[in-house]
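User: For a benchmark we're assembling, each entry needs the component sequences followed by a predicted structure for the full assembly. Here are entry 17's components. Please fill in the structure.
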Amino acid sequence: MKRPTLEVVAARAGVSKSSVSRVVNGESTVAPEIRDVVMRAVRELGYVPNAAARNLVTRRTDAVAVVVSDPPQGVVSDDPLFATVVRAVSRELEAAGKQVVLMLAESDRSRARVEQYVAGGHVDGVMLIALHGTDPLPAALARTGLPTVSFNRTNAPEVPYVGLDNASGAALAVRHLLERGRRRIAVITGPLELYESRERLDGYRATLRDTGRRSIVALGDFTRVSGAEAMRQLLDDDPALDAVFASNDLMAIGALRTLREAGRRVPEDVAVVGFDDIEAAAYTTPALTSVRSPMADQARATVRLLLGLIEGGPREPVIMPNELVVREST
Amino acid sequence: MKRPTLEVVAARAGVSKSSVSRVVNGESTVAPEIRDVVMRAVRELGYVPNAAARNLVTRRTDAVAVVVSDPPQGVVSDDPLFATVVRAVSRELEAAGKQVVLMLAESDRSRARVEQYVAGGHVDGVMLIALHGTDPLPAALARTGLPTVSFNRTNAPEVPYVGLDNASGAALAVRHLLERGRRRIAVITGPLELYESRERLDGYRATLRDTGRRSIVALGDFTRVSGAEAMRQLLDDDPALDAVFASNDLMAIGALRTLREAGRRVPEDVAVVGFDDIEAAAYTTPALTSVRSPMADQARATVRLLLGLIEGGPREPVIMPNELVVREST
DNA sequence: CTGAAAGCGCTTACAG
DNA sequence: CTGAAAGCGCTTACAG
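Assistant: Structure for entry 17:
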């Protein structure tokens, strides 16, 4: 069952291919009677335009590449950011009539594949979701000249992005802990090649410094297991600590487990604040206080930035606000 | 900076377009010296074939649609299944040289869009991830005649799938609870339009029936909040229950919260078993016993089924085994 | 407002 | 093994 072409629609309707094309593309310069007869033929034949032929001549693809760039050591496969952001991005892109081509960039090979594909003109633009701080992809994509934006800031300053005010988010968390009377406040950082990890650490440091307190730092990588390990190390190094700020909720969840295993009560002995306010934060024991980052909104704003760019709009970065959600862990 | 075409490569190399085409497509019937000169020209010019032109003549697309069909009432945006399965599917498809076109089917409009797109011959095949039991999409896709497979069984028997042995998974959970000496074992079901929800319920029922016990059933919809509510209801209806089998881990997490709020100790007063063994299961308080479903493996198997189908292979459904992972909650 | 014709950049029989 | 030519299914000036 071969698909009908413009030509057979034209024959059926008794008009030229040009007219059918105009009707199908909704041009206004078509006589009503022609439109009607063409519409009928289209319906009867079940005509769907051949995208390849159309793209070949128009040079538009109506597709956008969504590339998720993972760190070499891999990520948590169930990372809530992936689901939330990819879903929100797809929904918004589809609403704008764009096809979503999802690409994972995890290895040098797959990175090369992404570059090829993008340089090959298969898409109108690129939305980057970089879970990784040191990769050459953002700069490489920017070099292709194709409209490219990033969810969160990358290591390539020329790529416009929608980010968070991470430092003030962290400050929110630390000030809250101080107000609760906590005196020895530790931090568990994200991977430090990531811009948002560094900003969250800076916000923590600056806030403590302002009150004359010292920082207590353990390194994590945004996974639950790294949060659990960092917490263990913090407890060893400074058994008297009475609060911890984890740079994301997944690590806070890991820290909570370590604290429970160590017999520390939360929040009585140690208060815990996370970052992101993922859905799971409301279901931990005790429920987690967290700095909310509006991931879905941020994702939508990133799409709008990209669509604007494709239309020749401005490339101004956008910063989303965040707020503290207080629950039982502090 | 216009991209170079076959024609300019041919001119540069001093050969015909046909020869360039053959070299680029790796045909073996090309003299080595021609191959070399063409390769050089390709490299120097940075030639990348125009996919639209190629598709137009070959009628292959080297793309696969991954359609995620959500229920009308929406889903948990951070559903770990989405991240795990979409990631695994993409990775596997990319390894096979297929482009991944991600499509969300959430409304009638987006469903129509998916059908159009698929019928429009933009892809070589379709991988369906249906989080929803009553939708017309599986049957509609099957009707297009395009190779279509589903992650988990759908309501359209003609769509081949890779599923789980849900009934025996549930039986594993219930037998384990019986062995632990539990006598009043409740179940929290998933949405009953979903095949796997019904199978898990059946497995629970059959196992209890075999030991002469009665079922205690509460309805959920696979979200945390529905698990929390179902647990509240179960506690009201049967305060003496001493175990609950939740049909997925998200609902088990919700149930855990309700039990804590109600002052029931887990597992001393009430034992809890989940299903799926998502990463979060190891981080609940107490850590959750769960029936592991090998989501990533299942995703990969589904991709292989699809690739086979595209090559004209068999359409036999595949059933993956599952096993019980015992932790602290039982 | 409508139609005939050229052209987008490839691949693929076909002849040589 | 190589090249000239036709053709894939559209859109888009251009003339009328």
